[in-house]
Amino acid sequence: MNSYVMSEEEKEFLRKYDLSKYDRPSLTADIAVFAILSTGDADDYRKDPAKRLGVLLIRRGGFPYKDYYALPGGFAAKGEELEETALRELKEETSVDNAFLEPFGVFSAPGRDPRGWVVSQGFLALVDEKKCTISAGSDAGEAAWFFIDVEREELKKHVKKDSADIRTRYRLKLDSGTTQLSAIVEEIRTFSKHHEKTEYRIVENDGLAFDHAEIIVRAFQSLRERTAQSGRIVFDLMPEKFTLYSLQEAHEIILGEKLLTPNFRRKTAPYVIETMSEEKGAGHRPARLFKRNLDAFYSE
């Protein structure tokens, strides 16, 4: 197909077109950054400290929601793609750079931001926590990792001949060691005439700004679903070289369940390459280190 060439008539139409007759929202990017964190506790001196999933939050330094915690993010600059906005804001507010980044949802509910009509693109980001040096930017009071726990409870499920209504409650708990935050988010899924609609409602919120409780829950859902589907996304939480044990452990932390080691290693085998390096730790035998097999990883 030939490249599109704008006609003189169309150029004249655009010169006279008045875009200001339509109200326009401001655009923002909000980034849910996840990492596997060490708790610093070990049941046995021969074992490494236990690990949990964490999310990175900033404490807001100004209004609105001053001193409340929020995801890193901010307004798009003119001529900037939203992914560029996300990367820039993440670095400015937390000093995190070169994170894996992908969009997972648009947040546009009326009244979600008291400053006006603001539509946000949510981004899922994954990092190796050991390679990150966290520091707050000029407009953030502090930046900190929070252990995250999401409990899922199905409230009710009504299924009829040609429709259905499914309501699920998510209890979100966040703990930095010194600060605890919590929220309850309800998911309402309705099915009618083969069409599905999903809505979210924040029922309770303790300490989180804007609608970020919903964004965090939905980002966590996206990470868990992607992990269950193929698990390839989990590699972006790992260092360049890792043990198969630590890779399986990361899957189990995200999924919230134990995996059968033979099945996991059989599924993972095409995507890893064994190196000549070993991880040595106090109290346990050296473990062989692996890295991702890029040929297999990006051939599909």
What does it look like?
This protein has six helices and twelve strands. The chain is globular and about 75 Å long. The strands form two sheets. Strands 1, 2, 3, 4, 5, 6, 7, 8, 9 and 10 form a ten-stranded mixed sheet that branches. Strands 11-12 form a two-stranded antiparallel sheet. By secondary structure, it is α+β, with helices and mostly antiparallel strands. The relative contact order is 0.14. The chain has helices spanning 8-16, 82-94, 212-229, 244-255, 261-268, 294-297, and strands at residues 26-38, 51-60, 69-70, 73-75, 100-107, 118-126, 140-159, 163-175, 180-192, 195-206, 272-281, 284-292. 21% of the residues lie in helices and 41% in strands. The longest helix has 18 residues, at 212-229. The two termini are 28 Å apart.
